[in-house]
Amino acid sequence: MNNEESFKLELADVQNRPDNRNIPLKKVGIKNIRYPIVVLDKEKGTQRTVASINMYVNLPHNFKGTHMSRFVEILNQYRRQINIRTMEAILTEMKNRLDAQEAHLEVSFPYFIEKKAPVTKSPGLMEYQCAIHGSLSNKLDIMLLVNVPITTVCPCSKEISDYGAHNQRGEVRVRIRFTGFLWLEDVISAVERSASCDIYSVLKRPDEKYVTEKAFDRPMFVEDVVRATCLEIKKLSGIKWACVEAENFESIHNHSAYAYAELEF
């Protein structure tokens, strides 16, 4: 008998003890583990980033607990291959290793795109908060989540004012179920085309003049942003379902403005 086998005999497996309270748990697992990952980049092939990861399985009523260490072992096994294409394999491994009927994986990460200023072409990195959520029970469900910062100018303010109009930053949050493959960059571009103006990390004076005037010429309510984004999302291939929500962080109100829509294909 080797040392590993000896330890297994000596150490109690408390998680496998029975539980008589007759309450099944929908999700048990680990949450907010930070892990380096490699994601696919449309321009450069791949991009290294750091993800915050949640991993869960269901727990039948008769089991006291799950084996938390196995989640991390699976994560380490796939650490350089965590992406949309490997999601099903990781979820299947979670179900098998943890003897579960359902598995859930949520991978949230910052994604960076080099974006040039509109006039001077000064380069800068824009950060977008993205995520991949996957669930596997009898069928596979994968959803892509992308948050995109935007600028809007209020149409009402522009219409009623003798000069000027109030503007504000906002955020569009898109959730998409799809078939095949979908680039993050394509979703981000679809959103940015749908706002009064998109956001840049570097702006010189000619750029600032451009984005100010562009936004002023394209006043939009949050309702307009959501509807315009929906029309752009419809142009992407392989979309099965999508939801779009926009929130304006109002500059003259003590509240945010909000709109939401769902698309069925």
In short:
It is built from seven helices and nine strands, in the order αββααβββαβαβααββ. Strands 1, 2, 3, 4, 5, 6, 7, 8 and 9 form a nine-stranded antiparallel beta sheet that branches. Helix 5 crosses helix 7.
Describe it.
With 265 residues, this protein is of the alpha+beta class. 26% of the residues lie in helices and 41% in strands. Strands 1, 2, 3, 4, 5, 6, 7, 8 and 9 form a nine-stranded antiparallel β-sheet that branches. The protein is built from seven helices and nine strands, in the order H-E-E-H-H-E-E-E-H-E-H-E-H-H-E-E. Strand 4 (123-136) and strand 5 (140-153) form a beta hairpin.
Structural class: alpha+beta
Q: Give the N-terminus to C-terminus distance in angstroms.
A: 59 Å
**CATH architecture level-2 label:** Roll
How would you characterize the largest beta sheet? Answer: 9 strands, antiparallel
Strand segment count: 9
Shape: elongated
Helical coverage, percent range: 25-40%
Outline the fold blueprint:
Elements: H1 3-10, E1 25-41, E2 45-59, H2 68-77, H3 87-97, E3 103-116, E4 123-136, E5 140-153, H4 155-160, E6 167-178, H5 184-192, E7 197-198, H6 205-217, H7 222-234, E8 239-249, E9 256-264
Antiparallel strand pairs: 1-2, 2-3, 3-4, 4-5, 5-6, 5-7, 6-8, 8-9
Helix pairs in contact: 2-3, 5-7
Task: Name the features.
single chain, 265 residues, alpha+beta, Urate Oxidase, nine-stranded antiparallel sheet, 9 strands, elongated
